[in-house]
Write a structure and sequence with these properties.
Layout lengths: L20 H11 L17 E6 L5 H14 L5 E3 L2 E7 L6 E7 L4 E6 L4 H5 L6 E2 L13 H12 L5 E4 L8 E4 L8 E8 L2 E8 L3 E8 L3 E3 L4
Helix pairs in contact: 1-2
Organism: Segatella copri
Pfam family, one: NusG
Keywords: Transcription, Transcription antitermination, Transcription regulation
Length: 223
Amino acid sequence: MMKETNIHSQVTSTIAGDDGEAVAKSEQNAKKTVPEKPNEGLEKPADAGWYVAVVRVNCETRIADSIRINLNHNHVWFDYWIPKVKVVYIDKRSNKRKVKEKLFLSTFIFCNVSPRQLDKIRFRSDVYKMLTMPGQRKIYQIPDQVVANYRYFVENDEEPVTAAPVPLKKGIKVRVVAGSMKGVEAYVQSYNGKKAVIGSEIKYISGATLTISRNLLEVVEEG
């Protein structure tokens, strides 16, 4: 059963921008010839990786779709992920439980694309910047497995997940052995009786934690 989820929104400070009005006209033209389905007829490049674009809050999906439309129009494969969670709430009018999606991390678009295409994203007027590692100019590429693990945390429907605004403190590495998150590896944050708080993180961006039964965990030997 899905549980009610408490979300602590992570908002990145950004500067004012034009939200992409400068690309609106070209986007309309691209829509006329873009494939009906995302990446239809396009092959994922072997060097595709995960990068993060920072945009105006509450404009993530619109801008991500705009990027896809324009890149697909130019025969470029592009995929994206915007972290969202399903939240259970009580509708005041009907007094019934309903489910809706809510942003887990605001202002971030996780872009899966060839590094050769990054300039076509970062130089758009509606993209503030592409994330780089602290003190470096090179755009930060996130390992595929790191994104996959983090995504399992955020999108799981069995346990409520909370955003952690700072890097997680490292502890014992564990692996989930059953349930929808089977195979996911994480680090133990704390124990509380039969429960454990485990976490996953994407360096320099955010962490995610959830509470899970200790019986569902096994220790991963590192060495």
